[in-house]
Amino acid sequence: MHTIPRYRLMRRVLFPYSGEEALTFKQGMRVILSWMLLFPLVMSLLVLAMALVGGSSAPRALEVFAFALISGACIFGLLGWLIVLVNNRSARIRRAWKQGPGNPANEG
Question: Is 28:17 a contact under the CB 8 Å cutoff?
Answer without folding.
Answer: no
